[in-house]
Amino acid sequence: MIRPVSPEIVRSVGHSRLAGLAAYLPVYLLGLLMLALLAMPLVLSLLVSFTDSEIIEVPALGSWSLRWYERFFNDPIWQIGAVNSVLIALMTTAISVLVGTSAALAFERFDFPAKKTINLFILLPLFVPPVVLGMQNLAWHQRIGLWGNLVSLAIAHSLWAMPLVFTVMRAAFRGVDRRLEEAARGMGASPGVVFRRITLPLIWPGLLVSAFFSFIISLNEFVMSLFLATPRVQTISTLIYPQLSYNLSPLVAAASAILLLLTIAVLAMSARLLNNRKNSVLRNYV
Amino acid sequence: MTASLQSNNSPAQPPERKQKTERDSIVAWLFLAPALLFLTGFFVIPVLWLVRLSLYSRPGSASPGGSRFYDPNTFTFNQYGTLLGDAYYLRILGGTLVQAVLITICVMVLAYPCAVLIHRGSSRFKVGALLLVMLPKLTNLLVLTYGLLVLFSNSGLINQVLLALGIIKEPISMFANTFAVVVTETVLLCPYPILLLVSLFERLDPNLEQAARGMGASPFRAFYETTFRLTFSGAVAGAGITFVWAFGAYVGPVIMGNPDNYTTAVEVFDLTFSQNNWPLGAALAVSNVLFVIVLLGLTGLLRWFIVDRHTRRLKAVPAGGQP
After folding, report:
1. Out of A199, B33, B94, B208, which residue is the most buried by the measure of CB atoms under 10 Å away?
2. Read out DSSP for B31-47?
3. Closest of A55, A91, A89, A85 to residue A258, by C-alpha
4. Side-chain half-sphere exposure of B181, counting CA atoms within 13 A
5. What is the ipTM of this complex?
6. Longest CA span, chain A
7. Nearest to B285 among A57, A132, A156 (CB)
8. Which residue in B has a C-alpha nearest to residue A260's C-alpha?
């Protein structure tokens, strides 16, 4: 069946490399257009936030200014919004990491009936449009008197963050060499000690990633927040939203940029911590 | 330890081991309990409550003692009657559907080449491009939308550049219309299919296309017969996800569109907050979910009919190139 490839064929493939590139050119151009469309908005909202003028424009060289950031941090409304956003994100992180990790542990270390169905059930909220999630949370939280509370938003955000933590932590638990746990058990350690001394250090990177992702998801979630926010409970997102429709001042760009910078900072931090952690985990074994 | 952790239902189990399996099962349910309780309390019951809410009648002056948002002690299918009977809601549904199809086509036309580009790039380019694709998913929808607003508005960057170059005399309207909505939603939704397709491309045998070329196929034909056909079903799955999200679009239509672009999602919000008609809003949200479920079912059927036939031909050829 398999015949040796003749030299002529190899040569002809080499020659037609240029022709191949030409054939792919339209594909590459469309691909680049997509990447440009992805990058432009982020770059632009960052640039505009540093403008010196009263209207939205990309600042010219030399007329950069931090005045809109100053305005943001001195305005009590935005201050409260920023504090609320961070508080909700921290609560979301706590709920999602605890609940999601516990479920992941059950899935990776034990057997129980209907595993596939329960797995699907835990992931289900990820496939429900945010407007529907927002509406049903609003209706239910109003019914049980949770509406207008920061916890209400954290619970809604956890519906998205928890399934993701669950997925990440399942992978983390799967990555742990079970023989290490069994060896410790065999040498007489209690399950609690095994978890604390063996499993926990090994799943630590997964826990960090989970926590950071939960935080970022909550920080940036908008549609559910819009449903659950009340005039007294606002986040940065719900404060930006009306400004987008009515009053386009560079202050919105500053608020957007702060969210963007906070997200990038959290991502960079997690990458750094993971790097350090990997080294130190490795060092423990060497 | 190992035996007790794995399900072992053979009848020859010693009794003490069987007991241990049962105890493990109880421990498993203990670890699962927080997630199950959380989802039941804040996902399942709210869904049921949403359905019940859609069967109340709206608060009227007739029930001064009732809730502000719905009339308790009522049970009626009136809200669904209103949705089905009113041409206004049917038009919104039609508009949402057409717009979602448009968005899905745009996303796939751009995402597929983008995935090819990322797949064929150097490893450093790959990392950078994938990060760029991920970033919009991790940043705020509003940050992205704001950036697009700066790009497309009448005094925006594109119009300014075109005016300065003398290509146009007056700003082109690229804002508050369907074009702006479709572009915005394309940017917001493209990460899902791109990531999916890149992961599919990475799994393909890179020699396949070369082999086709070596056997004399033109570059286009080689690409079509190997890469495209093998990733077609994945592309359809990506389009399905994109469609679900495009159908539930809220931010793009509200900020970048005009009222003609408003989707059912926008209408849910409007009914709930502007008109304070919670039962009708709930009914629309429930209908929205039902509609998407039906559509997904149809897509599944379509996939079964078209895609499987499409790839079966390729699979029928014995994999000669692979040892």
Report:
1. A199
2. HHHHHHHHHIIIIIHHH
3. A85
4. 27
5. 0.84
6. 78
7. A132
8. B139
